[in-house]
Amino acid sequence: MAVVAALPVLSEHEAALTYNITFVVPASKCNLNCPACFIKARNEVSKAEAWLSPSDYRKIITAAADRYEHLRVAIQGYEPLLPESWEYTFSILDEARAHGLSSSFVTNGTYLETRLHELISLEVGAVTVSVDSPSGHYHDLGRGALGAHAKAVSGLDKALKLPELANKMIVASMLQPHRHHYLDGMAQWLANRGAKKWVVGPMLSPRAKGTVDTIPDIFSTLYRLQSEAHAAGVKLVIDDEFSLIKDELPDKVSPLHKLAIRRLKRLERTIRFSPSGRASVGAEILGEIDHDMPRWVPAEESGDAFLERALA
């Protein structure tokens, strides 16, 4: 599961130069009830502190764009396309476009169909739709809401038919402990729909600092999925942003380097903002939010000064 919005893979040279700024946008609650929700587990959308405004998001993006030559902007959740969150999402994507920045976001897909043409006009760089199984039953079970799969697939199918979006669509699936069968047939299911980009990542837990060693047979499963994706003509990337999948895991069946793996370089250059302006940098993103983490309060500090402090 991606925690910085499945940012597209960069070359080694690009990755070494790039800063990543990612956001969780305000919402009273998500429209789904995923038991494995990373945002809920981190307590990122707390109402104990005042939230940033849409104009605040624009200010921090402008400050980052002025400060860093190579910058990417992303949105992770709760759900960026919720009606109550859309003003924030629009402001972030629009400001990124104004500065010529690469932008991306992750969505559960339930409102995707309603925003397709706006996303085209915003020139979003990548849209990642979370689909955890070709089976509606399994997906809805993991999302805590009946009909979530049908809505996500409907939006995905329509996006794939739009030439302005088709090549920007990515499907992300979570590999869950003891539920590997949820992904059976997924590669061919994607190919049948015309989806060519697939990201699979292990379920993470903030309370365990993101450890993945509780997932049995992780390597054999990942190799099987990669083989199925290759046969179906789908490009599969294993999502391991924080290099948590280790060669020394006991379930290793062949060298790890044979997998196509997406990892973030220079973790200290990745910052994630909660709606309150509380910021996590690098490996801090894997843990729960706490009050020792720096918080940007726009009325008290410029965006540039905060970025210098947080990313020092």
Automatic annotation (TrEMBL):
Alphabetically ordered keywords of this record: Iron, Iron-sulfur, Metal-binding, S-adenosyl-L-methionine
Domain Radical SAM core: 25-160
UniProt cross-references to Pfam families, sorted A to Z: Radical_SAM
InterPro entries listed in its UniProt record: Aldolase_TIM, Radical_SAM_PqqE_MftC-like, rSAM, rSAM_sf
Cofactor(s) the record lists: [4Fe-4S] cluster
A GO molecular function held by the record: metal ion binding
Superkingdom of the source species: Bacteria
Classification via SUPFAM superfamilies: Radical SAM enzymes
Protein name listed in UniProt: Radical SAM protein
